[in-house]
Write the structure tokens for this entry.
Amino acid sequence: MSMYAQSMSAAVVLTKSPVEITVLALQFKAMGDPTRLELIVNVVRSANAEACVCDLTPNTGLTQGTVSHHLRILVEAGLLERTQRGKWAYYCLTSAATEILKSLNISTPAPLTKKQIC
């Protein structure tokens, strides 16, 4: 069965707004890189659905600098939110990323409460 034959449980709502379409295109472009998609999945799987760059680096086989570069692209695309805690940066999904993953039938943890969001 083709991966395109499966129906999606939710749909990304596109408007006629060129700005919204541009933002969505940038988000899909950011998620189009296998390393960045893997980083998103690893953040989702982390405790409290947030992860420090130091926790994400070992699983990728990349240097910390390269992982930080990919995370910056995901933050700029509006898919991850970055919170600085001391000298460590923590990343969690944005609501936009959660909606996109949901529309692609990719499970994410239950919605986080305001206290849990990084």
About this structure: Residues 48 and 112 are 8 Å apart (CA to CA). The helical segments are 18-31, 34-45, 53-60, 64-76, 95-103. The longest helix spans residues 18-31. The radius of gyration is 15 Å.
